[in-house]
Each structure stands twice: as C-alpha cells, then as structure tokens.
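#struct-queue
[09:14] JT: dropping the first one here, sequence first, then the structure tokens:
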Amino acid sequence: MTGTTAAPGLDDARVRAVLDEIARAAERDDQDVMRRAYATAADWPRPPTARQAADLCAQAALPVHPEVGTFLYQLVRGRRPALVVEFGTSFGASTLYAAAALRDNGGGLVIGSELHPGKAGRAREHLARAGLADYAEIRTGDARERLADLPGPPDLVLLDGWKELYLPVLKVLEPQLRAGTLIVSDNLPMLPPEFLDHVRTAGHGYLSQRLPLGEGIEFTVRLQEGPPHR
C-alpha cells in the first residue's frame, strides 16, 4: 500500500514561527497598550467608537488564544469550507490558523476584515512570511461595509473584533449565510447580551452554546438559509 504525505499542519515551521512571533509581541506589549488605551478613553465624555478604539489599540496584537486557533484549524480541516470570513483580523493570528487549514485541505479562501490599515498591513506581511498569502484576502475598513459583498456564502465565520459590532456584522452576513454555516464568536465574557440573545433565542435560526476554549467562545450553527424568520 502506498503511503501518503501528511499535510504540514500547525507544525509547519514558517507558520509556527510567525504565530510564535505574534504571541511574543502580545505578551510583551498588549497589556501596556491596553492599559494606556483605557486610561486615555477614561477621560472622554462617551465611550470610544470602533475607529477610535482601533487607533488606541493599533500596537496591540490581540491574537486568539491557541486553543481557539487550534479549534479553528480543526473546524476548517473537518468542514472543508470554500470560504471563511473573519471580522477583526488584527495581526492575523486567527487568519493564519484558518489559512493553514485551507492550504492543507487543498484550497479555499479566508476573507479577513480589519479597520486599522497598519494592522491589516502587518497581517498581510505575516501571511506572506508564513507562505499562506494565496489563501487569504484582508479587506481594510468597516466590516459592515467590507463584508457586505462576498464571492459566495461563507461556510465558517469568526467574530473577533469590536464586541459591540458582533451583532451588526452578523446581521450584514445573515442574508449570505446558509444552513450549516458555523460561527465562532471569541471572548465570550465580553459579548453584549443582545448578541447572545440573538443567537441563542429559538426562532432566530441558530443553535448556539458556550465552549470553554481560551476565555470562552460562543459556538453557533446556522439552521436555515438567509435572514431569520420573524
């Protein structure tokens, strides 16, 4: 019997080197960057907008927890999606996990969205250094606009940006979703109640539950095509 060559997986040296670099940057810088961001915004008369928050956190890598990244890789390998969509690319750690799985599947595309141009540029650089640029497209700008026009229905959606925009972004994507689409929403303790109500309420077209990965994620399956019935 002829043996088969194993896919590079997450042990690929180039992918692992870039993921480790992003993790080191986060460990070194993120706490201080976020502390300064909170201190700056504390004196503002109202909470920062998504764009202001993006500027305040421009130097924070904010990568997904390795448990969440590995779960994304597993989902992409198992689901074999043609299209993965991501809200909140940052330095591209989660994009790397998804793109590595697409490469190992033999094809597919992850479309990421990042509000801050500098972060989008770093994500593209990281993907190129990891040898995964052919499997990813990073769109710069407001995800509610940049993800409104996709080349096809997404099979997997990752929500990992500004938490107050999870629900607005999901509603932009809903007309493009089909039954069986998987949705991973990171940082569960920070998610707005209205988002959780939307994906957990019967009749909204989803089946959703908490999974104890990283800081906690909401894992959701779309049960129907298009917008939810009211």
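[09:21] JT: and here's the second one, same format:
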Amino acid sequence: MTGKLRGVFAPVLTPFDDNLEPDAARFIAHCRWLVDNQAGLAIFGTNSEAASLSIAERLTLTDALLEAGIPASSLMPGTGSSSITDAVTLTRHAVQNGAQGVLVLPPFFYKGVSDDGLFAYYSEIIERVGDDRLAIYLYHIPQMSYAPITMSLIERLLARYPASIAGAKDSSGDWNNSKAMIDTFSAQGFDVFPASESFLSRALPIGGAGCISATVNVNPAGIHALYQGWNGPDGASLQASADEIRTIFQAVPMIPAMKHAIAWQSATPGWDVVRPPLVKLAADTAASLESQLQAAGFTMRAYPQ
C-alpha cells in the first residue's frame, strides 16, 4: 500500500464542450485550481458524472492531467464499475501511474446482492491488479448503488486483504454509520472519509481522515481551512461558514448548480454544460442560487478564466 491519504477531496466536476465532449483544458485548469487550494482530486466520482463517461474518456483525462504536471499523489480516481474487467482496467491504470488510492464503487446494476457477491467483486479486482501499491477505498453510497458496504463486509475484506483495503468514503449521509466505521476500524489503519464537510468537526476528533465532498469543487479553501482549524478558536465559525455554502448548493440539483456557479464566477458560460440525462439549472433557479451565494459572501478566488 502507498502512503496514507488525508484531507479534503473534490469528486472533480467534468467540464464538457458544446458537443458534450470532455473539455480537457478546463478539466486540467479546474484540477490545478483545486490543488492550489489544498484539495485532493477524487476524479470520476458521482459528481464527476462518471457514470456518463466511457472507460476511454476516463483514461484519456487521467493521462491529460498527468501530462500537465498534476501530481499523481493528489489523485484518488473512481475506478468502480458494474464490469469487473472495466474496474480492473481503470484500477490498474491508476496504480501504475502513481495514484495514492482508488475509490471503488460496488457494482450498481443488480439489486440486493449479498456480501458474498461484493466480497467476490472486490477480491477479483485486487487479485487481477496484483500490485502491492494498490490502496482501495470502498465507496458506500447505498441510495445510488443499492449495494451497501456493510460492517461485516469491511471486516471480511480487511481480514483477507489488509494491505489493499485502505478505507472508505461514506456517502450514506448517516453520521452514525460513519462514526461506527471510524470507531470499529480506524485502529486497523482503515481511513474513513465522510462525504460532507458538515461532519468534519465530528469525524476528525475520533480519527476520521477528512472528507470527500461535492462542494470542495467550489469551496476548497474554506473546507480546507475547516479541516486544519476545526479545533482552533475559529473552528465553530469555519464549520458554520462551510455548512452555509453546502446548504445552499444541496437545496438544488448539485452537479448543475456547481457547474453554474463556476460558469458565473469565472465568466465562462460553457462551464454549465452537463451530459444528458442531466440538465442545466432553470433560469429562475440559477438566479436564486446566485443571489443566495452572494448573500453568503461566496466567491471562487483566483478561478481561471
């Protein structure tokens, strides 16, 4: 296993051009801005519209980042797929190119699959990749995958593959579940990232590793400041400020909302393009979003145009 990942990570938004093709130049610029603001890059997560990207597109965008000088050590690519062979291809590529960890969604088409089936899925990926550098972060998002990462599954995977199972992203939205993961497995080196900065002040004191949160895409500096200063004199105000921004974004469809915010803040209208079946924000919703963000003092400082 490679070095431990810590801090705040963005499931990086994927920009598209008017033909709905990935815009590599904007993707690189967005990733560079995030890294400059102390955020890690969980490329090809849920908010990346990863389910709408082909395997070839993901590999091409990863290569473009590396060729542009984005450090591989900042990457936690999403490599899960309903196809084991696709998951292995993406995972092997990430590991061989120096990614410190991979975020692996369980197969999400078949419903009601057993822990035995999920264990076999992760086992096949680990065995086929066959690389001591592999560090898998299990992706628990049952409301989307319908394949929960249970406590018993984590225990079983850790017992069989202690060097390859590095931790989890908990996107359940249930603090009690995140806490149980941390309390039960952190002593074994299993690192838990809740999927919201709203849990940072509760997760970090008990051994949480940070967060992998959608809104790191638009508020990386504020969330990183909270990660660093949660237990300092400004901790409560940093948490309140981060929560205010997140609350505004999560009240509307978050992917088009964050893309609209970038288009607005960077004066780059094309940034708001999403791939079907997603759609852009309606004009009145977009205007309301801007008004609320302005009232909250929101700004994306030094964002590239």
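[09:30] RK: nice, looked through the second one.
[09:31] RK: DSSP finds twelve helices and seven strands in the chain.
[09:31] JT: good to know. The longest strand covers residues 165-170.
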